[in-house]
Amino acid sequence: LPAGRGADGVPDRAHLSLRVGDVRRQMQFKPGGHFRFDSTVSPRSFVLDVFQKVGSAQVCLDDLKPISGIDGQLLHREGSVDVLLASGSSMKVDLQITALGDSLPTSPSGGGVVDAAQMQNLAPTASVRRQQQQEEKQHGHPDAKKTLRHTAAVRAKSYLDGQAVQKLLQGMVHNLLEAQPEDALTFMLGYLHDTQARIKTAAAVKREAERLAASDDEPPGFAADGSDPLPADLSGHHGAAIVALREDPDMYRRLSSCKTRKGVKFAKCIKTGVDNPGHALVRSPGITAGDAACYDVFREAFDPVIAAWHDGYSKDATHLTDMDPTKILDLPSALDGGGSVLSVYAEAVRNLEGICFTNACTFEDRGRAEEVMASALEVSLQGESLAGRYFPLQGSQSFVGRPSGMSYDEEASLRDKGLLFKEPDSPVLVSAGFRRHWPHARGIFCVDDGGLAVRVNENDHLQIMVQRKDADLKQAFSLLARVQGALATALSNSGHSYARSDHLGFLTTCPSRLGTGMTIGAVVRVPRLSTDATKFRDFCKRLGLAARCKVQQPSAGSAQDTWEVSCPSRLGTSEVEQANLLVRGCQELLKAEAGEVADSSSQPREAADDCQEQDGGWEEYEDEGFPTDECPEELPDLSEHHSMMVQVLREKPEIYGQLRSKVTPLGVSLARCIKTGIDNVGHAFLRTIGMVAGDADCYDVFRELFDPVISERHAHVDAESVCHVTDMDVRRVVGVQMDPSGSRVVEVRAKISRNITGLRFLPACSLEERREAERLITRGLMLNSGLKGEYFPASGSETFAPRPGGITLEEEAELRADGFQMEEPDSDVLLSSGFGRDWPDARGIFVSKDKQFSARVNEEDHLLIESCQKGSDLHAVFNLACQALSSIEAELQRSGRGFAHSSRLGFLGTCPSKLGTCLTLTVAMQIPELASHKSQFKSLCNRLGIQAKGGGSVGPSSPKSSQKGVLEVSNVDRLGTSEVDQVNLVLRSCQVLVAIEQRLAKNLPVDFASEPQASLALLAGSGRGATTEGAVASLVATSRATEGGRGASAFADTIGLGDDESPGFPSDECPELMPCLAQHHSLMADTLRANPSIYTKLRCSRTNRGVTFAKCVKAGFDNCGHPMIKTVGVVAGDAD
Fold this sequence. Notes:
Layout: E1 14-20, E2 23-28, E3 47-52, E4 55-56, E5 65-68, E6 74-85, E7 90-98, H1 126-139, H2 144-162, H3 165-179, H4 184-214, H5 240-247, H6 251-255, H7 266-275, H8 294-297, H9 299-309, E8 340-350, H10 363-383, E9 388-392, H11 408-416, H12 427-432, E10 443-447, E11 452-456, E12 462-468, H13 473-493, E13 500-501, E14 505-506, E15 518-525, H14 533-542, E16 546-549, E17 562-566, H15 575-594, H16 644-651, H17 654-659, H18 670-679, H19 698-701, H20 703-713, E18 745-754, H21 767-782, E19 789-793, H22 809-817, H23 828-833, E20 844-848, E21 853-857, E22 863-870, H24 874-894, E23 901-902, E24 906-908, E25 915-916, E26 919-926, H25 928-931, H26 934-944, E27 946-950, E28 966-971, H27 979-1001, H28 1013-1022, H29 1028-1031, H30 1083-1090, H31 1093-1098, H32 1109-1118
Antiparallel strand pairs: 1-2, 1-3, 4-6, 5-6, 6-7, 8-12, 8-15, 9-10, 10-11, 11-12, 13-14, 15-17, 16-17, 18-22, 18-26, 19-20, 20-21, 21-22, 23-24, 24-25, 26-28, 27-28
Helix pairs in contact: 3-4, 5-9, 10-13, 16-20, 21-24, 27-28
């Protein structure tokens, strides 16, 4: 199966079978796979069959019933096997396993897959077999030696497979042939020694991970045992519990020494709220319950949160439970001329009395909770005729029935159905303790028909989930009631019960889910009513419902006509009341869609005019900061923000209202694009773009905001009228030598970024889209015979089949030493943009053997290629980059895709700064004389249309970056001029710089005020034969420009690069009042917040050499940092 060819139309989980004569070989479809046949004659024909896998089951022979004959000899084993189908249902297969040589009885009625009557000719009866054995003892069996050899071979293969010897030898031979050392034996011995060391290291790491997983250590941050004092400044925290602590500062002192009978302390409950300041626009409780008693022992802290979250719920109120399905109203699926109800769902969370909740339980308690619940599920659901199976998470070893957890196929099937829950990665969940012991004692119970699933030990002990693909809400509610009731009975029989109180109903980890613990909703399609998303949400709010747009793929129609509506109320009303509120609300929506309600904006809701949309539980505020799915109604305060995007919104705030509810055909919202600019304040002197594109259509759907930003970033073009021209014909690159002597240009590089059509860009793409990008790009790179190299998936990535788990630590260190490292993003701007999602999944880098070409996959764009070369041959570097892009594009076209491109903006990058050519050309030049003329050199670069920076890194491993006067010169323009034009501009400009440098080195006069364009015009027509001296004649003047005193840097007038301090916190003397450090995350900020008197004591101090305290702490004050990546925040200016 040649990789990359012949795979069109092959379905998922396909198996191919090839039959040559009477011999058949079968394998799962995989490009590059081989079918091997032992034959001396090539066949004239063969049969190729394609099968699609519908299900699988792992069968243990010991689970099948043994059947013995009259003489006690084992005849066969038989039994029924449940096979899990890809659709979610299951089938039963009756099996009869018989060893050849034993008697084969007739198959039982109802049938096994092996018919014994048909196999009688294949094996003798037991009596005949005994007679044969006697004869063999006397005369010897003719095949005895063959049988012994076969047995020995089987045992040998089993041993070699168990020790992974074949894989080891293959790796050793592969490395040997690649290195081809003179002393092969020494090389192989070294390889074996290194492999043994890696195995031991991996085993030690695994043991340490298992030790940490089994420990009860809390995540770093605020101490859960109460040993830390409450931070003095909580003014920047927005959790409801922290707000209550600010209003009553003495509350923490009163409660810090208290704990429940299970040992949960108040500090444990508020840890997540203290560790995570949150966002003013994204409401969170800021507190969790570690067990049922927390709501009583720490009541004075929980009650204000509960009241704020549940519409002023009274401290003395009583919550009623009513799960009688006969009281549920009928929900129509559609009305004539109106919308329709596509599906309904009902979920409920429960916790066990007497066991700590999932965020606070010990390793043993978590396993005990799983054992109790798994047993109760099996007993109770079988009694309700709801047969199913419990699937522990992959890697969990706590469930006796499945000691290694679910299989990879089962995991993929559950993920496709949306039932699999993943390891928590948000700071809010991690700090609360939900990731402790992961994945120990967690799993999912699935009923065979696929309409019911129960999650165990996710955020609560139980989460019961019922789904129906119709409008029968009564049946969904009835099934939920049956399951939770049957579970309650089974738990009672084992001495357990649900955690519940008369005041708060069912007790949950998060206070937002108290009461019924239920979430009930429906997916409706109301295209006319939801034309204006804002008005539709307002209408739903008056009906007492919360509405959320369901993102559709383009083929499914409009992305905004399908909505999920749910009942946000949980505490103070019963389950029946909440379900009927949803039914009445959906009825009103269908009537309004059908035109039975004249004006939806004026329709009141009975007894619910003051209902406010509530935030849900943990799922709704996992991502801190500005939301990604939908913008809030009001534009946040941006008065202190500094970015191009923010400036546009400040000048034209009406743009926000026009765009806030729009989404692209692939489902990207404006919120996703501007999140990074709103989450990060930025710096007044270092303005960033402040926005990213989530897909190619963002530049059109949100054009009113993108165009002004693009026009400012690309100052020479008007984004509204620009028409970008693409020209990558390397034959049109001018044939000039920028450095004829070969002494001035150190290295040349070309970087080009691309994104793929039909896939969302990195900030918004799904896991599957990112993996598809990796698959397409790596295939295009591998098929290019001119690019001899290897793809290195990032360490920890499991998506590249030839290298599961990614590169080794040794390879990672080698790549880093060569300048090819691919680091996970750690800056607030990148993380908030979404570049770190699912890291390191489907990331990697392709590196050529000569290390002159590399291609980064899924870093900030789908693809970033870099071609570099020592010397000054920019033409060759550009040519190699174009060839690589052509090869990858050809592979994309075979899959019906291409590079994202616009006739207006050219090639489209994630960042608006990377549009047009998406090309960066860099020439590392050693020009110390020019560099010493700071202002004149900068002005000259501006007129030439180039920019110069300090040579921080010249090439992957070049040491020349440290040489005096080495600068990196690159193109400024990307949008509005073609690739060839930009290459020619850099070539000619660098030729001018080299010529001037040579004149300065000879002490010849140069007039920097002269216009360099005349020289460029001469160079454009000069060709290789013309003299460079003649080209720069217009720059010659009567005297050499000099600088008084010392030679200054070419960038002394650039902020932060000259003698002047970077703007922000002063460096000469601290202000009298210490600035607010509530949003700062560093060791220095922690110290000053805990003891503000230090600031007062030291703010005017300075060392003998004049270094001030302000100079030392400036970096910590200027940079807020990140809550999960804490820096030092202070530097020393001298030894004192």
